[in-house]
Amino acid sequence: MPVAQLLVLDACARASNKQGGSVHRRWRATAQDQSTVSFLQAVEHSLRSVRLFDGGIADKRVAKYSGGMKRRLSVAISLIGDPKVVYMDEPSSGLDPASRRALWNAVMSAKENRAIVLTTHSMEEAEALCDRIGIMVNGSLQCIGNSKELKARYGGTYMLTVTAAAGEEAAVEQLVRSLCPAANGVYRISGTQKFEMPKQGLRISEVFQAMERAKSWLNIAAWGLSDATLEDTFIKVASGSDASSV
């Protein structure tokens, strides 16, 4: 059965559960039932919101859908019938950027009239969609708040990323610690190092001047200074939890 017809049948089933009567009776009566129009409109709107309606896509069988299309279809189905609470697990996993953005827009529009509980490993997705974010480590909730609150609570730092020639890692670290003795190394991968630097007492102008001067003798290919992100916050919370459990 094509997807569009399948979703109308699903909508009929939901209406039958709410109002009584068999699904097939409601399906047969759709030609005379004014509520059919709202069913069809709800299905079309939901499919359009996740880019699964135009171009004959809605008339294909689900078996013909790719993995990403099936994931978008799951989101479309969950929003039909005006549910007050919706649970989503990794809704945009495996989607291309355009489809992911369309799905996010659909979720953003849908959440105005309902509560959506969403689990994700993507900090970008959490920041784009969630009003409140909880970070779980090993099945235990560590903290909860909006993005700004969490970054302020566990952040209060700048993140300095430096990419230099092989063998210069120790010199780069020495330079960073001369600018900020309290700096902590976050990671070191293939010549790129990331440092966490407390904002208190740190003069950004001095960091810029020192890094530009160091380009001539440290073979620095690139560097950047930014506020801590939600991903940085997650890593810090997870690292703290792992350390306390040892």
From TrEMBL:
InterPro entries: ABCA (IPR026082), ATPase_AAA_core (IPR003959), P-loop_NTPase (IPR027417). Pfam families: AAA_21, ABCA12_C. Coiled coil: none annotated. Transmembrane segments: none annotated. GO terms for molecular function: ABC-type transporter activity; ATP binding; ATP hydrolysis activity. One of its GO terms (cellular component) is membrane. Residues 48-124 form the ATPase AAA-type core domain. This is ATPase AAA-type core domain-containing protein.
